[in-house]
Specification:
single chain, 180 residues, mainly beta, Coagulation Factor XIII, Chain A, domain 1, 3-stranded antiparallel sheet, 33% strand, Chitin-binding type-4 domain-containing protein
Length: 180
């Protein structure tokens, strides 16, 4: 699975993607996990060099829609989190989550987009990192993550405290068995 909007770093199928940073290449394996079986395949965020220009500009409190490719395997759902980082991706605070049934609605139909409101108390930042992360419910124990570089026009606060993003099936973090 892969987020395609906002356009994550180096995505080959992203919508309205910026030009690549110098020396970087398009990711043609954007639907691959960043870890499998506790072995890191890529770093947190998948790529650590940000886009030279932003993927999106948002206002704290606004509603946004995150879109995913339609060809990945949803592995019977799982836990999805959408998070923000104001320190270049070193720490992430969750702004929205779907537990157990990510990529499915209540009638068990496939879902490829999620709409939710950003917290109104997010601080302003010209260089925030927005992430989607996913712990799949079935199959190999994997961890998926994409990051997009965004700006946020927000409140006068200087920080945002939300739940810490959950990382699992990645070196140094818990392994989560299959679940329903």
């Amino acid at each position: 699975m892969s987020m395609i909007s906002p356009c994550p770093r180096y995505n080959s199928n992203g919508i309205a993607c910026p030009a690549l940073p110098p020396g970087q290449a398009i990711d043609y394996n954007e639907s691959s996990p960043i870890a499998s079986g506790g072995v890191a395949l890529q770093p947190i965020c998948k790529y650590t060099t940000p886009w030279p220009t932003l993927s999106a500009s948002w206002v704290a409190g606004q509603s946004l829609t995150v879109v995913f490719d339609s060809y990945g395997s949803p592995h019977n759902g799982g836990h999805c989190e959408w998070s923000v980082s104001f320190d270049s991706g070193n720490t992430f605070a969750v702004v929205h989550r779907v537990l157990s049934h990510c990529f499915y609605d209540s009638n068990n139909n496939r879902v490829n987009n999620y709409t939710f409101a950003l917290p109104a108390d997010l601080p302003s930042s010209g260089s925030a990192v927005f992430s989607w992360s996913w712990i799949n419910a079935s199959g190999n124990r994997e961890f998926y993550m994409n990051c997009a570089d965004v700006s946020i026009t927000g409140s006068s606060s200087t920080s945002y405290t939300g739940p810490q993003m959950v990382i699992a099936n990645y070196p140094g973090y818990p392994m989560i068995p299959e679940f329903e």
